[in-house]
Design goal:
Blueprint (H helix, E strand, L loop, with lengths): L2 H26 L1 H8 L5 H17 L1 H14 L2 H21 L3 H4 L2 H31 L5 H5 L1 H23 L2 H6 L4 H18 L5 H4 L13 H4 L3 H21 L3 H7 L5 H29 L2 H24 L3 H19 L2 H6 L7 H17 L2 H10 L4 H20 L20 H4 L7
Helix pairs in contact: 1-5, 1-7, 1-9, 1-11, 2-3, 3-7, 3-20, 3-21, 4-5, 4-7, 4-20, 5-7, 5-11, 7-20, 9-16, 14-18, 14-20, 14-22, 15-16, 16-18, 17-18, 17-22, 21-22
Amino acid sequence: MGRDHWKKIWVGSAGNMVEWFDWFVYASFATYFAGAFFPEGNDTAKLMNTAGIFAVGFFMRPVGGWLLGRVGDRKGRKAALTLTVTLMSASALLIAVAPTYSVAGYGGAAVLLIARLLQGLSVGGEYAASATYLTEASAPRHRGFASSFQYVSMTAGQILGLGLLLVLQNTMSDEALHGWGWRIPFIIGALGAAVVFYLRRNMLETEVYEESGDDTPANERGTVKALMAHKREAFLVIALTMGGTVAYYTYTTYLTKYLSNSAGLPKQTATLVSCGALIVFACLQPLAGALSDRVGRRPLLITFALGSTFLTVPIMTMLQQVGSFWPALGLSLLALVVITGYTSINACVKAELFPTGVRALGVALPYAIANALFGGTAEYVALWFKDRGVESGFYWYVAGCAAVSLIVYLAMRETRDIDLNRVGGTPKPESGRESAGLPASR
């Protein structure tokens, strides 16, 4: 790939990293600030309250996906990416200064909720804008490799959050962390988002967007009306996301809590396990993305779905019994290796389904709906099963979601060789089913 390709990937990825740092530190530090916004009670109940607010952020993602997807298709990918980071900076700052329950009662939880809603708006647009930007900015034969940097940067943001947590755990007392130290990552996140705002204002637009031969009328770009011409593609995005997003949030955001709250590992050990596993996970993304450029997207997706369907229950069961660092790390790595088949290429697969005039919205809205229904609720569902005394029920839930996506992967067609610059892009009525990746009607 040329120098301009790498520059676009760097700027897009750096901003994505800060966005997801802000998004994930909420989950990483939840065990420390859960008691600050709610009255005394059961620890699991407090975590459920903060997990509920975490999930609410996901339910704003469809709104953010619609709003910022529309901006991305009408004003350009650069405009959408700049707006997302502005919203994220504001939300991180709100959490950093939110008053505690002892100061403002449930007023602090209300501020936390508003901030999480803003984060949901931001991330709802960020995923699609960055997925579209990275896919369009790459050389055609390297789309899988280039778009894999979305999850490299997402994971890097989470690693930085966990790394900061480890530093604070080892330099501050537990009392200080619970009292005020949990605010530090949100202050850092707000400052980082301000830097990214400057970088994104000077980023280059993609050539695919600027030179689009798409036949979508200008006044219909980024509209739900235009998206409805691609209903099958939108449904496909929801279905192929379902299993992947549940598995991803189970083994990333929820893993640290699971290891400490269910397996009984010390918080520092659980954090170290998550951080170490995620570092390896991030390194795997470009390798798997490059592999998809050679063998296609479907083989990787099918491998993920098979592994997640049949390995989730034994992996989660064994994780609950681990008593030390190395077994926990090994099992976590096994799970994340399986998930790599989805995370490394899901961005480009979704972008390859839509024409330029509706690509950002086409990726954003259905993906955000799937995340609101499945990804954002994964942690809450897990804690609900635990609170009811049937924690293993959650393992089967994750495996079941993967099984549904497996059916979709087996039915869809390959998207690797689709031309993003093809003139028109709107499927003909008689071939619409095939363009959605489903078998043609006979």
